[in-house]
Amino acid sequence: MLFHLIIFIIFISLEAHIGFVYPAARYPYLDFLETTRTISPCGMPRGRNPHYTTFAVGKQYDLTWTANHDLHTGGIRITLLDPNENKIQQLLPQRANAWISYPERIPVTATLTFPQACRGCVLQIERQALELNFTFHSCADINIEQSLQNNDQIQCSGNGRFTNNGCICQKYFRISRRFPDFYFPD
């Protein structure tokens, strides 16, 4: 039994399909959620105490996700959903119901600008696996504000103190060099 569990864990770590890194994916973070066996649109419901990443309208952000192999054919797309998980707008590609296909390796980052304010919304990323007739999906719970206030909760993800020089981390947290607006537990 333990042997099967170890093999399963190794398989999952090698078979990363799609999962948000920034903004943080919905807990529990799983990157193999596909639409035929999980609930839409995210693979799992929003938790009782979701972690929201806050963005500002009109500011560019580098979103990042896992896509560690190229075994599947097809493309990806990113969609903004309202608090009830209904589609507001497809953000990548901007043409509705389209997919971005890549001839080689699927990228793990994209720069996006959010077009409108939205509290309690959801960012969904999908990856096709055309040869299996699957679509893998991952979601992040987000807030999009007209502008961000310079306060600890907004600017420092609630895990630091905001000063004129930036955020000072709370104990047991560190700021990411790659994502300067996001804190990770040590």
From TrEMBL:
Keyword annotations: Signal
Natural source organism: Panagrolaimus superbus
Signal recorded as keyword: yes
Alphabetized Pfam families for the sequence: BIM1-like_dom (PF20238)
UniProt-recorded name of the protein: Chitin-binding type-4 domain-containing protein
Domain of life of the organism encoding this protein: Eukaryota
InterPro entries xrefs: BIM1-like_dom
Ranges for domain Copper acquisition factor BIM1-like: 15-157
Signal peptide: 1-16
